Amino acid sequence: MTSEFRRNATSALQQDDVQTNLNRVVHKLREHRQAAWIAADEWRQLRRHCQAIRENAVRKLPQLLEQLETNLIRNGIQVHWAETAEQANHVVLSIMQRHDAKLIIKGKSMVSEEIALNHFLMQHGIQALETDLGEFIIQLAGEKPAHIIVPALHKNRRQIAELLHRHFPGYAYTEDVDELAQLARKILRDHFQFARVGLTGVNFMIAESGTLCLVENEGNGRMCSTIPPVHIAVTGIEKVVEKLSDIPPLLSILTRSATGQPITTYFNMISAPRQPGEKDGPREVHVVLLDNGRSTSYRDRELAATLRCIRCAACINHCPVYQHIGGHAYGTVIPGPIGSILEPQQRGLDRYGELTQASTLCGACTEVCPVGIPIADILNRLRWDATRQDADCSTPGAGSGYIPAQTALWKLWAWQCTHPGAYRLSTRLATRLRVVLPGYFDAWTNVRTMPKLAKTTLHERLKALGIDHE
After folding, report:
1. 55, 60, 389, 442: which one has the fewest Cβ atoms less than 10 Å from its Cβ?
2. Does the pLDDT at position 358 exceed 70?
3. Where in the chain is the domain with CATH 3.40.50.10420?
């Protein structure tokens, strides 16, 4: 039976426009990143520094989260803990209902995608409006993001122009990029002004000061977090860092790894709601700290490295698999290499275990990761977990890929390779019966030529030449 991932990948490979759009944008992002690192020594030094910062934060995660909560509350920010996606959704819903709000304007937040917040709120009569331009386009198209930084990279300007004109026919049709951006700004302007609640993600949280950091280019995140009377920040618990001094190096490596920029247009630091005498800012700030499987990864020494991720998408941009099939083929919130190790940990190998096979193990993802996550090693670890039958493995869905017949064949192969007599007999039989062996082996020969066995074994050929091979 063909899996959903294989069906999606096959479909994506047959869509020429997707291939064209992907190649154009991904290559541009890669070029920008490369241009941002003129000195290789600078990259290596900053990478080691940022890796150490994130390793320290993950290692001290429980203590830092307690310190963060204490300082957030001291600053007047309300803290909500959510073990699951369902709990996080209900926290947001309760805040909306308390303020009798029927509209929430959203800045970019992959965590809100993770918990399917928009769909949940719609079921309760609340409209969630995306204000990031790429997310706004995707929302109009009824699709999910195809990339964590450039969610609409699979669409070209003509497709976007047609989409906007179809939804807003009162505006003149245009394919000019600047005019399309201005059109979206006009449409969203009133919503910024009158919405009672705004929601954003969080890039980093500083434990020592109780500060939320938000990185963006469009200004919509600042609008969502300052204009509405209520601001809700939804984030994973792993985004915490220990000190304010940790932020400058992380910001530098994040922006250059993601878009090639030395710094983004906006960098927001939120430490408190509006204070007496201040003229702007929300009157309430809420932080929803989401676990949703992250604690399970934290408890595993090897898998905990996944939590270092700063969501720059460098690994996605350099992945040859993603470059050919795009983000939608994965069927996950986070696509590409990081998604292939993150989603199985959070949602189970029984559901997303096949994503661990969506890799050539070329190591490009590990090489460009700005915080040194050993993605290729973790992919191999998760592949192993999928076939394990012992009870010691804590990875959700472990053992779901176990096939008794396959395991028996590998054991037989291992036994054969450790018994010279059996090995020689089997290879001799294989060469003699080569004409009756099948020329097709399931998916293996779909993309490979079946190798032809020689008439004689290597041992026989060496013996005929008089070479001592014992």
Report:
1. 442
2. yes
3. 37-292
